[in-house]
């Protein structure tokens, strides 16, 4: 199938671009001995797991279902962190996860005996209270009032028996200078307990495969923890695996005018790319410009009843017409995993663009996928 023959709306993941990212990540692993695992919360397209498993050490999960997915579909190291674990799920989590990270000492006390008896490595998430983000408090685990990680003031070293590692996650789409800043805070607040640990997990949010990312600085941060404390280092990026490696193909359905030219497309921001509204951000669109940059400007809106279901304002060299196909970039991460069926919107198909340029649809959805979620 050619790209232009794909149904719309459709997510398309480029196999060659995924592998390009994986080669970069694997190079870091080879040079430093650190382990990198896929954070499935950002990208959990199981059709790509065999390829990802060739290059990375495994997966990390945010709960039971992601843990099962990583265990069943990749079958390598399987890590999990949750703000709190359910009693009716913890036994299965322990049975399939190698590293179990607790968010509090109360959760640690409640479940560590079971986890250790099963031979699992257990860790505690720390909050170094070091915010390095600007303008995205919703994604800042160090924001005031955050529910993530133990702060220094609540740290209980007398309960560390059996704990083999510390975990922190403070970044979101950031470079390694912010990691370096965070490590300084980690050492300042939790340095006394690092020598008794076996491993440290730097969490996610590392934009390692971005063109301007400072990989040598990252590797220096890794070696710092290895040489100074003898720690095994883990990283769990999600976006870096599929950054700039996917597309959303959509079709123009109709037009409307209300002080601005509006094009209605068959892709919904609220249903198919909700980070456009949550972050918020304006996704890249191939062949377009900023509003007013090119002769013809349109506001691209989705087909739902939500007034704010707007993808953004874009300009084009030629007027749009019904049936035109538009291609948004960087649509593999935090898109497929967040889709929903509000208003009965059909979920987009999912396709792979293979290395030879051919495309194949690996999943399509219909009415039953909407109906089955309702009672």
Automatic annotation (TrEMBL):
The protein's required cofactor(s) are namely: pyridoxal 5'-phosphate
Cite a single GO BP annotation. nor-spermidine biosynthetic process
Note the Gene3D superfamilies from the entry.
Alanine racemase, Lyase, Ornithine Decarboxylase, Chain A, domain 1
| Keywords (A to Z) from UniProt | Decarboxylase, Lyase, Pyridoxal phosphate, Spermidine biosynthesis
Q: Which organism is it from?
A: Paenibacillus albiflavus
- Record-given protein name: Carboxynorspermidine decarboxylase
Q: What is its EC number?
A: 4.1.1.96
Task: Give residue ranges for domain Orn/DAP/Arg decarboxylase 2 C-terminal.
Answer: 50-331
* Class in the EC hierarchy, top level: lyase
Any Pfam family matching the protein: Orn_DAP_Arg_deC
Q: Does the keyword Nuclease apply?
A: no
Q: Which GO terms describe its molecular function?
A: diaminopimelate decarboxylase activity
Q: Which residues form a coiled coil?
A: none
Q: Tell me the NCBIfam families matching this sequence.
A: nspC
Q: Which residues bind substrate?
A: 239, 275
């Amino acid at each position: 199938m050619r790209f232009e023959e794909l149904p719309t709306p459709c997510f398309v993941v480029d196999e060659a671009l995924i592998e390009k990212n994986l080669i970069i990540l694997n190079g870091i692993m080879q040079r430093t001995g650190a382990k990198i695992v896929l954070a499935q919360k950002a990208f959990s397209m199981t059709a790509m797991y065999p390829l990802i498993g060739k290059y990375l050490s495994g997966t990390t999960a945010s709960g039971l279902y992601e843990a099962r997915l990583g265990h069943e579909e990749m079958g390598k190291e399987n890590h999990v962190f949750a703000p709190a674990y359910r009693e009716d799920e913890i036994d299965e989590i322990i049975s399939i996860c190698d590293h179990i990270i607790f968010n509090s000492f109360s959760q640690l006390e409640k479940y560590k005996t079971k986890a250790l008896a099963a031979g699992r490595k257990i860790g505690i998430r720390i909050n170094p209270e070091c915010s390095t983000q600007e303008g995205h408090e919703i994604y800042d685990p160090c924001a005031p009032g955050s529910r993530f990680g133990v702060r220094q003031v609540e740290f209980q070293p007398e309960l560390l028996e059996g704990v083999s590692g510390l975990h922190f996650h403070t970044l979101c789409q950031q470079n390694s200078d912010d990691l370096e800043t965070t490590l300084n805070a980690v050492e300042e607040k939790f340095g006394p307990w690092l020598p008794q640990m076996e491993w440290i997990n730097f969490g996610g949010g590392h934009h390692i495969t971005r063109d301007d990312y400072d990989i040598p600085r990252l590797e220096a941060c890794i070696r710092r923890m290895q040489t100074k404390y003898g720690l095994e280092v883990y990283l769990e990026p999600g976006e870096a695996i599929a950054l700039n490696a996917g597309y959303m193909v959509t079709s123009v359905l109709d037009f409307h005018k209300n002080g601005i030219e509006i094009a209605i497309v068959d892709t919904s921001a609220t249903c198919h790319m909700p980070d456009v509204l949550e972050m918020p951000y304006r996704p890249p669109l191939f062949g377009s410009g900023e509003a007013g940059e090119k002769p013809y400007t349109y506001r691209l809106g989705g087909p739902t009843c939500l007034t704010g279901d707007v993808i953004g304002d874009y300009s084009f060299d030629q007027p749009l017409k019904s049936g035109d196909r538009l291609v948004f970039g960087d649509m593999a991460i935090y898109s497929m995993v967040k889709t929903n069926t509000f208003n009965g919107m059909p979920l987009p198909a999912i396709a792979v663009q293979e290395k030879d340029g051919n495309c194949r649809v690996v999943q399509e959805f219909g009415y039953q996928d909407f109906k089955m979620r309702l009672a």
